[in-house]
């Protein structure tokens, strides 16, 4: 079991980060919110969860211990594997998930690609007494700047989460139309992705 990874960020993609540890590059699968806090060349420490399969070993990296704990707990719900658990956290941060489950908010849970009404009901049933109350933890702030390279990043992230390319195009266009003149930089991808997901949930 690898509880955490500490090292220099060697590379970032839309879905993963590579941390250099003792001369070895470890690839960690992360949500957009976690990736948005990392910078190539800087040191980082990420709590991790290892998923072992017959043909693979996959490390998932998290913003904090709370996100890691929720990721592992969500997988105990019927029909939820690691990829779907990561998609849940990409759409709903831990406190948002706690709130949705506590209020039996099926509509909010079905915003996650791959979770239908029955799946949402199962998650509520399996986790309602186990997730606990919202903690009100602060999330890292994202530095503002100007650029629109975020469009391709958000589009690819949406497709990776299960939306069609057509839906992703529509959501990105909607977010772009709502942006102020001082548009966020690519480091704001997590914020922009959530805005795109909200757009898709209203469709």
UniProtKB/TrEMBL annotation:
Pfam families: HHH_5, RuvA_C, RuvA_N
Gene that encodes it: ruvA
Region of interest: Domain III: 147-203
Organism classification: Bacteria, Bacillati, Actinomycetota, Actinomycetes, Propionibacteriales
Superkingdom to which the source organism belongs: Bacteria
Coiled-coil regions listed: none
Similarity comment: family membership: Belongs to the RuvA family.
Protein name, entry field: Holliday junction branch migration complex subunit RuvA
Quaternary data: Homotetramer. Forms an RuvA(8)-RuvB(12)-Holliday junction (HJ) complex. HJ DNA is sandwiched between 2 RuvA tetramers; dsDNA enters through RuvA and exits via RuvB. An RuvB hexamer assembles on each DNA strand where it exits the tetramer. Each RuvB hexamer is contacted by two RuvA subunits (via domain III) on 2 adjacent RuvB subunits; this complex drives branch migration. In the full resolvosome a probable DNA-RuvA(4)-RuvB(12)-RuvC(2) complex forms which resolves the HJ.
Keywords (A to Z) from UniProt: Cytoplasm, DNA damage, DNA recombination, DNA repair, DNA-binding
Naturally occurring in which organism (per UniProt): Nocardioides bigeumensis
InterPro entries given in the database record: DNA_helicase_Holl-junc_RuvA_I, Hlx-hairpin-Hlx_DNA-bd_motif, NA-bd_OB-fold, RuvA, RuvA_2-like, RuvA_C, RuvA_C_sf
Main location: cytoplasm
Record's function text: The RuvA-RuvB-RuvC complex processes Holliday junction (HJ) DNA during genetic recombination and DNA repair, while the RuvA-RuvB complex plays an important role in the rescue of blocked DNA replication forks via replication fork reversal (RFR). RuvA specifically binds to HJ cruciform DNA, conferring on it an open structure. The RuvB hexamer acts as an ATP-dependent pump, pulling dsDNA into and through the RuvAB complex. HJ branch migration allows RuvC to scan DNA until it finds its consensus sequence, where it cleaves and resolves the cruciform DNA.
Domain description: Has three domains with a flexible linker between the domains II and III and assumes an 'L' shape. Domain III is highly mobile and contacts RuvB.
Domain Helix-hairpin-helix DNA-binding motif class: 72-91, 107-126
Subcellular location(s) per record: Cytoplasm
